[in-house]
Structure formats: C-alpha cells, structure tokens
Description:
Blueprint: H1 2-24, H2 32-38, H3 40-51, H4 57-62, H5 68-71, H6 77-80, H7 89-96, H8 98-107, H9 112-143
Helix pairs in contact: 7-8, 7-9, 8-9
Amino acid sequence: MKMKSLLLTLFAVFFSVTALIAGQADDFKIDRQKVQDEFADLSRLEQTVVVNDYLTLSEMKDNNLLSAEFASMNLSSSMMMESALGIPGFWWGCIFGPLGILVVYLVTDNDRDEVRSAFTGCIVGTAVSAVFYLIYALAITSTI
Length: 144
C-alpha cells in the first residue's frame, strides 16, 4: 500500500511540475500580426488567382503575375503530390497490411508507385511477422 501511495504521489508531483512548465512556455502564444505578415504574400497570390479566373501556375508564370519570390520557386508536379498523410506507402503497407494498401490507394488517388510501394511493404511486413512468430514458436516449444 505504501508503494502505491509513493508512486501516486510521484506521479502527481511530476504532472504538476510539467503543467507548470508548460503554462509558462512561450511556445503556445500566437502573435497575430506576425502570422498576418507571413501570409500576406499568399493572400495577394490568392486574390490574383481569383481576379484572373483561376489561372494555373504555369499560366501565371507565363503572364508574369507571380511575385519574384513565388516565380523563383521550382514547383513540379512531383513535389505537389504527397504520400498518404506524409507517411510513405511502404510503411503504410508494412505496418497496417491490406488496410494500409487501401488507405494509400484512396488517399493518393491511385498513385501507382505509392500503391506498389504499399504492397511491397505489406509483403515485407508479413514476412517479418511470420519469421518472428516462427522463432517465437520454436523458443516456446524448446522450453517445454
């Protein structure tokens, strides 16, 4: 009983100190003016797109409608495509198996390379799991 009381007290002290430190941190304060300044260029770009009947990026570059900062950016279609939730397809398939393949298929709009990578991950994950369970079963049977 004394051990439970000690552990509960230590947990309460740890939680209180952590809450106190987090409450004093400046990480959670937002400077609205700084945020507005950061998004000012994007707001101007959005207004330009709306005024010019939703031009594509290449049309805007051709007509010099982009600011120098945006025009200098190299935005290729491969950079615009992201993997499912920022996690590569291989890991979706490896960790979640067939469900991961389905998620990658649906989220990436049937991006063949990502789906193939998820399928490869599923095979690798299944093989690693099978080897792990085989070793585990052999270890248990050898102790009996």
